[in-house]
């Protein structure tokens, strides 16, 4: 099974590190990238340049982004019956207890802090997709 992954991330370096990590993941992934929450909504709704985007099985979501941050995006999709069952993994550099609590209250599926070290970052990405692609049962 190929895991359809929507990565919502504004940092191009993190996007590239995530893509590199996924190339060596045990779970095959097809990745769509949105640079902020507003683009993430366009992707889910298949609007504009995302008209051909597949429905994601999993969303990796950063918090701090321009236009629409990750928390606003999370609230929007969890309030929408068409998208609320899609698992959302917060994948962010924030270790703030307030951010962690706030994201879980908004129904994040999990909260993962991005490691700064490259090899650990890659291993974390691979473990997240291994869990959601091979262990968890997705809707």
From TrEMBL:
<dbReference type="InterPro" id="IPR011006">
    <property type="entry name" value="CheY-like_superfamily"/>
</dbReference>
<keyword id="KW-0597">Phosphoprotein</keyword>
<dbReference type="Pfam" id="PF00072">
    <property type="entry name" value="Response_reg"/>
</dbReference>
<dbReference type="InterPro" id="IPR052893">
    <property type="entry name" value="TCS_response_regulator"/>
</dbReference>
<protein>
    <submittedName>
        <fullName>Response regulator receiver protein</fullName>
    </submittedName>
</protein>
<dbReference type="InterPro" id="IPR001789">
    <property type="entry name" value="Sig_transdc_resp-reg_receiver"/>
</dbReference>
<feature type="modified residue" description="4-aspartylphosphate">
    <location>
        <position position="62"/>
    </location>
</feature>
<dbReference type="GO" id="GO:0000160">
    <property type="term" value="P:phosphorelay signal transduction system"/>
</dbReference>
<feature type="domain" description="Response regulatory">
    <location>
        <begin position="4"/>
        <end position="129"/>
    </location>
</feature>
